[in-house]
Write a structure and sequence with these properties.
The structure holds 2 protein chains of 2 kinds. By secondary structure, chain A is mostly helical. Chain A contains 7 helices and no strands. Chain B is α/β, with parallel strands linked by helices.
């Protein structure tokens, strides 16, 4: 404990503490204090993202490239970049997307959407197949025996770990095979696969709990330390 | 008589207002936070490779550090960002900070105030480290960095041209970094750095992520991910390794100090789970076939 606890004199810390307590008051029940904090958070977040989006994306990537002298608005000493007239194309596509707000012209918004979906799909497909499918497959099945070092000694713990992982993957996949009956070896694998899935879901949930508790601990550190000066 | 009372308490627990549980959790966490215990910690198999890799870096080696997180995930990611940055500076490496998140610049500023300025006041920006900051585009930014760093960043956050930064004198592309450290609170983040940065170039990627993201990224270890700092525990492990390596420096243990309350909370939640289930089984009573449960 801090031997000389001192209440914060910072206005920012007091506002932060008040908002934290207003949000935490939801644990008691839904109340106007919580609603105020919630609406404030949503409004401030939306405003922050809009400003950030304009000045960090739209301004440097569209406005400055069309009108190079605009670069001097944010930095009077900045050099003038070359004009890039082709930037009009993505700018127009972006504007077309906004037409979805008008029902009569909403159909024009399908063009930029189709463009975005198509390019994203084309760009990601190969990488995902290589890194998220083939590389994962290779990592799961490749080494039968894991060699520990240059002397060629087998790392038995890692080897058993590898085989358990492989068997668990096979059993989990068997659980999702519906075309055959659930009897015999396949049925046994499917039941084992269900247990493997339960363990995996349990581990994921435990990590999620850990993350949430970490956030709560951080908030309490702020309240007890930065605000009340007890820590 | 005593047994009947015990059963009554167990059944009563099931009807306990959940707000009492919240109160117990808050009191337990508060007391532990004030007591500030430091539990013993040792680096796991996921943390050790990251530490070893940074230990093996040559002096002056540029290391790309991606700060892809925001205040929402800072409680978990910031302690690891502090520990990793501290280690990079102690090794004499030159971190090059980038971010795919708009809030990343603010996170970098906090890192300056918490680590750079108080602990390494002699460091010179542009020579000992470089701060390139945020660029919009997510995976497209990584793709551009893979081909030409200067096509994406022409100047650092201060507006100084990249060509005049000694920290980046010998770096033109992503594959010329000996290490990528990606600290990620979501998307775009660690997954994108593995898929579009590490895998195509062969550059080792060391990751740090929230507890929620850890199960997803563990699948990439060790083939596609050098190591992973998972949540507050990963940060605490890294701090412990750093404190052991540099015992005379008094390395701050921000995550380590938070692990005490974290552990108390976990024990309490487990206790609630056990008691809640026992209470449920007691109240459900015998099944139709006459057996209990």
């Amino acid at each position: 404990m801090n031997p000389e606890p001192a209440l914060s004199t910072s206005v920012e810390v007091w506002i932060g503490a008040a908002l934290s307590l207003m949000v935490l008051s939801f644990l008691w029940r839904d109340n106007p204090c919580y609603k105020v904090a919630e609406h404030l958070f949503v409004g401030v977040s939306a405003g922050y993202w809009m400003v950030m989006g304009f000045w960090s994306t739209l301004w440097p990537n569209a406005i400055v490239k069309l009108v190079p002298t605009a670069a001097r608005v944010t930095d009077p000493t900045a050099g003038l970049p070359a004009r890039e007239p082709l930037i009009v194309i993505p700018l127009v596509l972006g504007c077309l997307m906004l037409l979805r707000l008008w029902p009569r012209l909403a159909w024009l918004g399908r063009w930029p959407t189709a463009f975005a979906v198509g390019t994203t799909l084309g760009y990601n497909l190969v990488r995902y197949i290589r890194s998220d499918f083939l590389a994962q497959l290779h990592a799961a099945v490749a080494p039968g025996l894991v060699i520990a070092g240059a002397d060629g000694a087998v790392n038995w713990a890692a080897t058993v770990d590898q085989w358990v992982l492989l068997a668990g993957t096979a059993c989990a996949l068997a659980y999702f095979t519906y075309t055959r009956g659930g009897q015999g070896l396949r049925g046994g694998m499917a039941r084992t696969g269900l247990m493997v899935l339960m363990v995996a879901f349990g581990a994921s949930f435990a990590y999620a709990v850990m993350a949430r508790v970490a956030v709560l601990v951080s908030r309490l550190q702020f309240l007890l330390g930065d605000w009340l000066g007890l820590v | 008589m005593r047994r009947a009372t015990g059963v009554g308490i167990l059944e009563g627990l099931g009807r306990l207002d959940r707000r009492w549980l919240y109160l117990m959790l808050f009191v337990a966490l508060g007391v532990t936070l004030v007591a500030r215990p430091l539990l013993p910690e040792s680096p796991s198999v996921f943390t050790r490779p990251v530490f070893a890799r940074i230990e093996s870096l040559a002096r002056g080696a540029p290391v790309l550090v991606a700060l892809d997180y925001s205040p929402a995930s800072a409680p978990e990611i910031e302690p690891m960002a502090q520990a990793l940055t501290r280690h990079l500076f102690l090794q004499g490496a030159r971190p090059v900070f980038v971010t795919l998140w708009p809030e990343g610049n603010n996170m970098l500023q906090r890192l300056r105030e918490q680590v750079f300025e108080p602990e390494f006041p002699d460091l010179v920006e542009g020579i000992d480290f470089a701060a390139l900051g945020y660029k919009a585009g997510g995976r497209m930014v990584i793709n551009a960095l893979r081909q030409d760093l200067r096509s994406m960043y022409t100047a650092d956050l201060r507006g100084v041209p990249l060509d005049s930064l000694p920290a980046l004198a010998h770096v033109a592309r992503l594959d010329q970094f000996p290490l990528i450290v990606a600290l990620s609170g979501g998307t775009p983040g660690l997954k994108e750095w593995v898929l579009y940065g590490g895998d195509p170039t062969g550059t080792p990627v060391a990751g740090g992520c929230t507890g929620i993201g850890t199960p997803e990224f563990l699948a990439y270890f060790p083939a596609q991910l050098l190591g992973l700092l998972g949540g507050l525990k990963g940060a605490s492990e890294y701090e412990a390794a750093l404190a052991e390596r540099y015992p005379a420096l008094g390395i701050p243990r921000r995550a380590g100090r938070a692990m005490g309350p974290q552990t108390v909370a976990h024990v309490l939640i487990l206790l609630f789970l056990v008691l809640g289930n026992l209470s449920y089984l007691r109240r459900r009573g015998p099944r139709r076939d006459g057996r209990r449960t």
